[in-house]
Fold this sequence. Notes:
By secondary structure, the chain is an alpha+beta fold. It has one domain. Helix content is 42%, strand content 17%. It contains four helices and four strands, in the order βααβββαα. It has helices spanning 8-17, 23-32, 71-84, 101-117; strands spanning 2-3, 33-40, 50-57, 64-66. Strands 1-2-3-4 form a four-stranded antiparallel β-sheet. Strand 3 (50-57) and strand 4 form a beta hairpin. The radius of gyration is 16 Å and the shape is globular. 11% of the residues are buried.
Amino acid sequence: MKKLLITEEEKNEIKSQHDDIDRNLMNFLLRRIQVNERQIGSMWEDIEPMTVTEYTFLELPGYGFNSFSSKKDMEKKIIDMLYENDRVGEEVYEFKNELDKNRQKIIRTIRSFLNFILPKK
């Protein structure tokens, strides 16, 4: 497993581009993320093995996703993890509060986090 390291330049880029994100929540996620790549081999030599990237969270067993999950599924798993560990309240689940500033900030933070950790294609 390798841990995601952030350079000062990347940290400043995140800070300048995303003033409307929750910095505490972003730091919580960035400190705990672990990225692990696995090769899924094949029985035939002429076919290259497939690489699967797994994203897990330190000290939070059972939470994570892989590179085959959709972004919406990743977002939902992170929201569930944050809610079950008392980092966010019920406002992220209620559809009547879609225009709530706090809910929008949490969702923007999670999306920024996913955009940061997922490989650029």
